[in-house]
Design goal:
heterodimer, A: 491 residues, mainly alpha, three-stranded antiparallel beta sheet, two-stranded antiparallel ribbon, 21 helices, 10 strands, B: 1143 residues, mainly beta, five-stranded mixed beta sheet
């Protein structure tokens, strides 16, 4: 008798224990995606993760801010010893090993960040129940906006410019989190998708982004107080809106994208929305030239519409710009040329504050100080500019020139004025105007990675160092897709 | 007839049926049942009886029920017995038996847990067959039964097979017997402890029957699968069983090495870097590799290839343990090991089975009498430097000059260089010729005391084991010491239930040599003195200026030659230790006859810690500038905590129903494992007197504490059926369903199965009684088993926190790997066929086997285009096959009362082939091409994966050798044209490491009380890439000491037919087929010599047994490949003297 009971029990145990849940072991030092999206803070962490990912050295933490892109724009003198392995990059030899490694890593980094956005978007509707509607709206808007932002940079790097060939096969516009390959879209198709995502993002943010409210005052986070409320919000997640893709950043990015598509009307509209908001005050001269190393603001912190928060890059930056002859630097003559110190730029504060003249056995060179801060305490955190106010003035200028050249030059002059150049700009033709605009932008964007895009968008020759000229060509402007992308994506 | 009394009732119908059962089968059954009872009952020795005129048979049953002792007798005997009246209360069983047998014509004998009943020796009565011998056609047969050395065996059973009416007989006191049978009938002769025999009646005889002793170990005839114990004769799977005693004879220090001798398909990879470092765990695979390294995507050379993905599963007493446990296990505790190789044997382990399963059974406390076993070993090891041929002082200087070291370089003129040269020559002439190799080495003495105490009462038994073992390594200061204590308790409150608990605590302390890497001594120049004139060890012995051939400032570099001995004068240390606690509890319930429920629950806790302190004065900090003096010295601390739980519930059913024999197991098992590891590193020590981590100045810049948390869970249910009919035809069927936390979320449960068939042809009429063939068995099996040896969480899309770099708006988490929800276990289909053959009374045994393993769904990284956001994900893509041939042969050449001579050989050949690979491995090959040209790996062949090739293929550029005219190497392009330029695209598969055959052979010789075993292992027909020729001859840096061939065999003048390039060419030689050589080796692995003292000697010492033995391991290594062996740590020879006794 008891045998039967026993066998029954035994089988019961077998059945009972085929419990699937028990086998679902979750990593403890990591969190599975299903678990992360159980809580509202999980969504916040996932969104923060997108920005943390973007601040890594292989994308905006270095290469797309002051590394590869500025090397391609011929902003640095690179000696034959080639201490940082950028020499071949500066020569546009796109088959070079070091270049390929960095370029592939840029591609993979951008798309990994995009995948992170897509994973948030794939789960965001489930989160509606557990999040406040403000959280939901901001996270969804930023994820959409970041997806577009990242695709736009991938497009600007790896595809021909809209001006040169709008119908060229460009990059995949990835909107799903999956291991399936997304086919390539044309340049104009990608731009349409970018504009769609950014517009959606803008609509969402317009009502909820705290930066839009009058109470949000842009300023230095640390004392002495200048009235900043950027860190006033009780929730850390809602602080420092300018370190994330805020409403104005989306407007600015839209202005960029429309300009890239030669849609001056919409570009101007969006640029002016930022400029006219008067949210981002010009940096006072006093702050720029402060002799107290803890108070000097070399990055024009308050003018940044959007910037990456990059304190982990302190050490790499020191290696890049603070290692004497092993740094990325300029010869003095080249620097003087770029900033036109012999002419209108004689009093350009940027030249004086951003560069340190060092004379040694090798000659006289200029070390970049733009990212140099007092090691212990500063008025602002270490950031890499992603979009600054002056760029919107330049966009506005470019969009206005055809209608009203004087107003256009007025936009440029307002930037020049705040940098210590009192002489007004004069341009005889659109071409002359653009030449000068590029020159101005190069001064302003030095070490920020934006000037390369401008050369490419306008199909302008790149002005090299020591008087060299690199003719405009898609051979230099279009970086090749990674081999893995071609091979495994059947490109 | 013969009958075995079981605890349960034996219906009369069954008795009638069993009459036809042949003796042979009964013997097998007996052994099986006897074994089942070893742990089943057989504990109580006290008997309570109250019977009036009861038949002896009933008394036997009762005793059996109470004690678990089995009775073995010919039922005809009992007919002559008279009924017994007895009253006993808690009396000793022997006394009770004595009472029962008083006045009976019978006597008894206790062998193991069996009571053998026979005719009283003084009784001259020969059992009369109940049927008169007048039956037509019958003749009277005479014979004599003796043991293998000619001593008569009394009480042996002789039965006529297949004759329903013939009842058989037993042999008398002088071993003689008489019975009646038809000519052509087969007699089966058996006796407990001996292997049964059959003979065909032809004439009246007399027949001389020699019985060969079966091994005393009850497990020897059993295959222990961990869930079942199956009689070897009835098992279709492929398993190798070796007793602990045999293992110990081969290598008393290292169990794993011994197993390799008994079955070379249990392959321990030679670790040429770690040599004989006692702290290095071996890498093992069984019947070839079934996995490809996945994960980090780093390019691998052979030295990086860990065998861990192919590690077999280790099961000890029913629960899973890890390699570490087996490596540190005391061989004296091992009863036997069983290596399960094919699917039929391993399918019960399902997802853990693909790489084979090693089942270890430890000794359990025996009889209730107090027994003490003691084993002492004195082990001495000495370094084996026979493969090192370095230059002496004079030759070295000569080589330097030929290599152009003293040419003007940088700012140094010819005069400066000559001055340096003559300074060194002065050293040489004045007699400095340091043999640096011997400096960090020593001859060691290690000891082992191993003690086991067992005893207890009728319902309670205990065993206590103690181990103290020191194992110093041949490099000074390196050692591994083991201390352990174990407690074994068993308790049977009722007659049907037994509880057993084993608790053991082990501490292992390892220490690495402060002398550092052995390579540093090999490369030290012999013309440097060890110490200065005052006997002080000086840190910096020389300075060199050399040309790096780089551009700019970095072209000339000054480097100091540092004395590696200096490190040993400091207080640096590198220690690792662990404390392990294992508690295993089992409960067993004998529900009914043949039906048994067993549960085993074990819990293992192990705490590791590693402390590595490097003195601030150590050579590695020599180049620190003064500004970084506060960062000199480092301390790394790592600790981990491992917890393993293993639970198994098994229902066994063993039953013979007529000619049908069933052995069924239904089981379920749970296994969980978790590890929590953390580590921290600190730098900045002022001196090396304060070596505590608390004295450190700071953490290294940018470092953070590290941690690792891992969890694994496994659940499985299985059914295994072993069936045999008349012991002739066997079938094994098993199936298991496994759930593992490592599988993808969509595939949590995996099925595995196996089926095997076998035929004992020797049991067929046409072979029965054959004088030549004693065993002829055909077996074949197939099955599908799995492995999940990949890191957990591969199946999940997981977020990693940027925990130490917050974003300004809070901590971020990002996805960096794409989890594959569909991830599955690897499935290995196996096919196995073999023959077991024993000839001439088992004198010659031969078992050839063939196997084929095809692993499907090999876990591999699938390359993705970056635009998906990921570079790769893991999927089941790729197939790999392993096929092989195994041969075991043993021949007892001589066997008599004084002499036994047995020779044996075990040979294995395994071929591995990559059948299909994923695109990621193809892109891996591209990366390998890329890395192949980097400075550090130019001369090392890297692993590549190509379909149709094996995992062991060597990839290099084909070479025609050195051009005698100019000393340059001539390469062959893949199209066959010649060139002087090496190019990575010329790399092709050129050879295979896989040997044609690996194996062991040897002889076991015993003469009277002496025994000697000699075992060789060999590897033939493989190829190897001689790294020494590359690193130490061609790419040798002339500023360091080199292999002597760098001086003697390199090209010097036009016309030289040299094997190696121009001596003055300091460029780097790259991978080429020129360095591939035949790899044929022969090792004298083990020489064993023992003497068992005569009873007169040991009984005087109050001992029960005394043996002295001498084992020598790794005595001699011969190889066609002249290669430096033991790069970071030299190989060692070891000699062990052991003393074994019991009280």
């Amino acid at each position: 008798m008891h045998i039967k009971i026993f066998i029954g029990l035994f089988c019961g145990v077998l059945l009972f224990s085929s419990c699937k849940k028990w086998l679902d072991v979750k990593p403890e030092s990591q969190v599975s995606k299903n678990e992360l999206f159980q809580t509202a803070s999980g969504y916040e962490e996932a969104l923060n993760g997108v920005y943390s990912r973007c601040s890594q050295g292989n994308i905006y933490g270095k290469e797309l801010s002051f590394g590869t892109l500025d090397v391609l724009a011929q902003n640095y003198y690179i000696p034959g010893r080639d201490p940082l392995a950028y020499l071949q990059t500066s020569l546009y030899s796109y088959t070079n090993k070091d270049f390929i490694t960095r370029k592939d890593s840029i591609w993979n980094g951008l798309y990994n960040a995009i995948a992170n956005c897509n994973l948030i978007l794939a789960n965001i509707e489930d989160g509606k129940k557990i999040m406040t509607s403000m959280d939901y709206t901001i996270i969804k808007a930023e994820a959409l906006g970041m997806r577009a932002y990242l695709h736009f940079d991938a497009l600007r790097i790896f595809a021909p410019s809209f001006a040169s060939n709008p119908d060229a096969a460009a990059i995949p516009y990835v909107t799903d989190f999956s291991n399936k390959v997304t086919p390539l879209s044309t340049v104009s198709a990608v731009l349409t998708k970018i504009i769609k995502d950014l517009s959606d993002s803008k609509t969402l943010l317009a009502t909820v982004d705290p930066i839009v409210s009058g109470g949000y005052i842009v300023g230095y986070p640390t004392l002495p107080s200048d009235g900043s409320t950027e860190q006033a919000d009780a929730s850390l997640f809602m602080q420092n809106r300018r370190h994330r893709l805020n409403y104005y950043a989306v407007c600015g990015e839209l202005a960029r994208v429309f300009l890239y598509s030669n849609d001056y009307t919409n570009a101007l509209k969006n640029a002016l929305e930022v400029i006219n908001s008067r949210k981002f005050p010009w940096t006072s001269q006093a702050d720029f030239i402060d002799i107290n190393p803890q108070r000097i603001d070399r990055i024009f912190y308050k003018e940044l519409v959007f910037a990456w928060y990059i304190p982990p890059q302190t050490k790499p930056l020191l290696l890049l710009f603070g290692s004497d002859l092993n740094s990325l630097y300029m010869l003095q003559n080249d620097g003087a040329g770029i900033y036109e110190t012999g002419g209108a730029g004689g009093d350009d504060l940027r030249y004086k504050q951003w560069f340190k003249t060092v004379t040694d056995a090798s000659g006289t060179r200029l070390d970049l100080l733009k990212y140099t801060r007092d090691p212990d305490s500063n008025r602002h955190p270490l950031v890499a500019p992603a979009l600054r106010l002056s760029e919107l003035y330049y966009i506005a200028a470019e969009c206005t020139y055809d209608i009203d050249p004087a107003r256009a030059m007025g936009y440029v002059d307002s930037v020049r004025l705040h940098r210590g150049i009192g002489t007004p700009m004069t341009a005889g033709s659109k071409d002359d105007f653009l030449d000068q605009l590029v020159k101005e932008a190069r001064k302003e964007f030095y070490g920020e990675g934006q000037i390369f895009y401008m050369y490419k968008r306008l199909n302008r020759n790149i002005l090299g160092l020591s008087g060299t000229i690199i003719p405009a060509s898609n051979k230099t402007f279009v970086l090749p897709l990674p081999n893995d992308e071609i091979e495994f994506g059947n490109r | 007839m013969i009958e075995i009394i079981h605890g349960g009732a034996l219906p009369e119908k069954r008795l009638a049926l069993t009459k036809t059962i042949m003796v042979m089968r009964l013997t097998a059954l007996f052994l099986l049942t006897a074994f089942m009872q070893v742990s089943a009952a057989a504990l109580a020795q006290k008997v309570t009886l109250s019977e009036q005129n009861a038949p002896l048979k009933k008394i036997f049953k009762e005793i059996k029920r109470q004690t678990g002792y089995v009775f073995f007798y010919n039922s005809g005997l009992l007919e002559r017995s008279h009924p017994v009246t007895i009253t006993a209360k808690d009396e000793d069983m022997r006394q009770v038996l004595e009472k029962c047998f008083r006045g009976q014509p019978l006597s008894y004998n206790i062998v193991n847990k069996t009571i053998v009943v026979s005719l009283r020796k003084d009784s001259s009565v020969i059992l009369q067959p109940p049927i008169a011998d007048t039956v037509p056609g019958r003749i009277t047969v005479n014979g004599r039964v003796t043991d293998d050395v000619g001593k008569p065996i009394a009480g042996a059973n002789i039965v006529v097979e297949g004759d329903k009416e013939q009842r058989g007989t037993t042999s008398g006191s002088n071993g003689e017997f008489t019975l009646h049978g038809k000519p052509g009938a087969v007699l089966a002769i058996s006796y407990v402890g001996y292997v049964g025999q059959q003979l065909k009646i032809r004439t009246a005889g007399p027949y001389m029957v020699r019985l060969i002793p079966g091994t005393k170990d009850p497990l020897a005839n059993m295959v222990v699968t961990g869930y079942q114990m199956i009689n070897k004769d009835n098992f279709t799977g492929n398993a190798v069983t070796v007793s602990g005693e045999e293992l110990k004879k081969v290598n008393p220090q290292n169990v794993l090495q011994s197993i390799q001798v008994f079955d070379p398909s249990f392959n321990i990879a030679t670790n040429n870097l770690a040599g004989s470092n006692p702290n290095a765990l071996p890498q093992i695979n069984v019947r070839g590799s079934t996995a490809i390294p996945t994960g980090n995507g780093a390019v691998l050379s052979r030295n990086d290839l860990t065998g861990n993905a192919n590690l077999p599963t280790f099961i000890m007493d029913g629960y899973e343990v890890d390699l570490q446990k087996v490596y540190d296990l005391d061989v004296n505790r091992i009863q036997s090991i069983t290596l399960l190789k094919d699917a039929a044997a391993t399918a019960v382990y399902g997802s853990r089975a693909a790489n084979g399963v090693l089942v270890i059974t430890t000794k359990t406390p025996k009889d209730g009498k107090l027994q003490l076993y003691y084993n002492y070993e004195l082990n001495t090891t000495g370094p084996d430097l026979t493969d090192y041929h370095v230059l002496d002082a004079n030759q070295k200087l000569q080589y330097e000059q030929l290599a152009g070291v003293y040419k003007p370089v940088g700012g140094l003129t010819r005069d400066d260089q000559e001055e340096t040269y003559y300074g060194k020559l002065k050293n040489v002439v004045s007699g400095v010729n340091t043999y640096w190799l011997s400096q960090p080495l020593r001859t060691t003495f290690g000891q082992k005391h191993s003690l086991y105490l067992e005893g207890g009462g009728s319902s309670m038994r205990y065993g206590l084991s103690l181990l103290y073992q020191t194992q110093p390594g041949v490099m000074k200061g390196s050692s591994r010491n083991r201390y352990s204590v174990g407690m074994d308790l068993s308790y049977n409150p009722g007659k049907k239930i037994i509880f057993r608990n084993t608790l053991s605590a082990t501490e292992v302390d390892g220490s690495e040599s402060p002398y550092g890497n052995f390579y540093n001594y090999v490369s030290m120049n012999p013309y440097y003195p060890k110490t200065d004139s005052l006997g002080h060890v000086v840190q910096k012995v020389d300075t060199w200026l050399y040309d790096t051939h780089r551009e700019g400032d970095a072209q000339f570099k000054t480097e100091s030659a540092l004395n590696p001995l200096y490190n040993a004068t400091l207080h640096s240390f590198n220690r690792n230790k662990y404390l392990e606690l294992i508690d295993a509890f089992s409960a067993e319930w004998n529900i009914a006859r043949g039906l048994r429920l067993r549960s085993v629950v074990s819990y293992t806790k192990r705490k590791y810690s590693t402390d590595v302190f490097t003195s601030p004065f150590a050579n590695e900090f020599f180049y620190y500038p003064p500004s970084q003096y506060s960062l000199r010295g480092s301390y790394a601390y790592m600790a981990s905590d491992e917890n393993t739980f293993d639970g198994t519930l098994t229902l066994n059913y063993n039953r013979q129903l007529g000619d049908h024999f069933f052995n069924v197991a239904l089981a379920s098992n749970v296994h969980t494992y978790n590890i929590d590891a953390r580590g921290v590193m600190a730098v900045g020590f002022t001196n090396d007197r304060f070596t505590n981590i608390g004295f450190a100045n700071s953490f290294p810049q940018g470092s953070a504490p590290s941690s690792d948390l891992e969890k694994e869970r496994l659940f499985g249910s299985l059914l295994s059926i072993n069936y045999s009919w008349k012991n002739k035809y066997m079938v094994d069927l098993s199936g298991r369903a496994d759930g593992s936390s490592k599988f993808g979320t969509d595939k949590k449960v995996a099925p595995f199965w196996a089926a095997g068939i076998g035929w004992n042809m020797n049991k067929e009429d046409f072979l029965a009684g054959s004088r030549v063939i004693s065993l002829f068995r055909l077996k074949a099996s197939t099955g599908m088993i799995g492995s999940v040896s990949f890191p957990p969480y591969k199946a999940e899309t997981v977020y990693n926190y940027y925990s130490n770099t917050w974003y300004s708006t809070g901590v971020g988490a990002a996805v960096t790997t794409y989890g594959n929800d569909n991830l599955q276990w690897q499935r290995t289909h196996t096919y196995d066929a073999g023959i077991d053959l024993k000839l001439f009374h088992d004198r010659l045994s031969l078992s050839p086997r063939y196997y084929y393993k095809l692993t499907h769904g090999l876990l591999a990284d699938i390359q993705l285009p970056g635009s998906t956001g990921f570079s790769s994900y893991t999927d089941n893509l790729g197939d790999m096959s392993n096929k092989g041939f195994e041969l075991n042969l043993s021949w007892t050449m001589l066997h008599n009362s004084n002499w036994t001579v047995t020779v044996f050989t075990n040979l294995v050949r395994n071929t591995n082939k990559i059948v299909r690979i994923s695109n990621a491995l193809k892109s891996y090959n591209d990366r390998a091409d890329h890395v192949q040209t980097s400075d550090s790996l130019k001369g090392t062949p890297l692993l590549r994966y190509k379909e149709g090739q094996s995992l062991n293929t060597i990839y290099a550029v084909r070479s025609l050798g050195i051009d005698p005219e100019n000393g340059k190497e001539i390469f062959l392009r893949p199209d066959g044209s010649r060139t002087y330029t090496w190019d990575v695209h010329y790399i092709v598969p050129v050879a295979d490491y896989t040997p044609k055959v690996t194996g062991s052979f040897g002889a076991v010789l015993s003469w009277k009380r002496f025994q000697m075993n000699t075992i060789f292992t060999t590897r033939l027909g493989g190829k190897d890439y001689n790294q020494t020729l590359v690193d130490r001859v061609e790419n040798a840096d002339p500023r360091y000491n080199v292999d002597s061939r760098a001086l003697t065999e390199r090209w010097k003048n036009p016309g030289d037919r040299a094997k190696f390039k121009n001596i003055a060419d300091l460029g780097t030689s790259q991978v080429s087929s020129r360095f591939i050589q035949d790899d044929n080796t022969l090792d004298l692995t083990s020489v064993y010599f023992s003497y068992d003292f005569a009873p007169s000697v040991y009984s005087r010492l109050a001992m029960k047994h005394l043996r002295i033995a001498f084992t020598s391991n790794d005595v001699y290594h011969w190889s066609s490949l002249k290669i430096e062996r033991g790069i970071d740590y030299p190989f060692a020879r070891s000699f062990t003297l052991s003393l074994q006794t019991s009280f």
